[in-house]
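Dear support,

I submitted the protein below through the web form. The confirmation email said the job was done, but the results page showed an empty box. After a refresh the structure appeared. I'm attaching both so you can tell me whether what I see now is the final result or a partial one.
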Amino acid sequence: MKLFLDSAKIDEIKTLFEMGICNGVTTNPNLIKSAVENEKLKYKKINIENYISNICQTVGVGGDVSLEVISIEANQMIEEAKILFNKFNHIANNVVIKIPVNTFFKGKNENNFEGLKAIKKLSIINIPVNATIIMSPEQAFLAAKAGAKYVSPFMARLDDYIRDKININYQPNDFYDSEKTKKIILNKFDHFVKNETLDEKNISQIYNDNQYEILINDSTDCRIYDGIDLTKVIIEIFSKYNFGCEVLAASLRNKIQVREVLKVGVDAITVPFDLLSDMISHSRTENVLKFFCNNVAKEYETFFTTNKI
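What the results page shows now:
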């Protein structure tokens, strides 16, 4: 199981790799822009090519550095992927190119398959791809068929979309598991309010199939209840076929979400540095450590004051 850092900040990357617990870095143009601008405040002049080279060198051989294209047309994405790969992969043989799985944009419906075209072409010429902005199992399936190395379901982004659909008043870092979301959806049926023992199957027996299908489909994302549910379904589908594609859970916002997605057997997760800090923290650990440190026998202390190596 792989742990990636979702960051372009060199200091954060170095910290994680010094610990030996990180397998790579996921970046995007915005993360790189922010990191470089932050470095400029300290060092005035920063060359962005050298900065990205430093990221690749810090991650090193055996890790992965996801670098993203900026276009939405297949030919342009392929060209940009080649440029990024040729410019940076030689440093440590660790560059993976992020390609959006769906490039529907500005009403250009005919461009829906541009991402898949680019993924397929790049896989043929052995440029590894991280298919990004995955929002459905079907997108993940198509990206895997096209030859992606990773598919990245955007879990929290999908959570936001579904919560907005059913009018949940939430904060971005709130955690709602799929069962809680399902209960909120079923509460839209008047009968459910009076009989909380009803479940999805009971509801469908009381209301006609058409009413039930309309409610469930309008309140979910084609029967996907949240980002964890999305990732779980993708893993279930991939387990039945030999795609050779890994599921990389992205857009994670809190440690409960991390725990739940780890439980479903994801291949990799990518998390920001602040979330990693939250994952390692626990008030009881800190309190017990404080107690231990304040109650060390004096004789035990002398081991370290009189026996210098």
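Response: this is the final, complete result; the empty box was a page-load delay. Strands lie at 2-6, 24-26, 64-68, 95-100, 129-134, 150-153, 246-249, 268-271.
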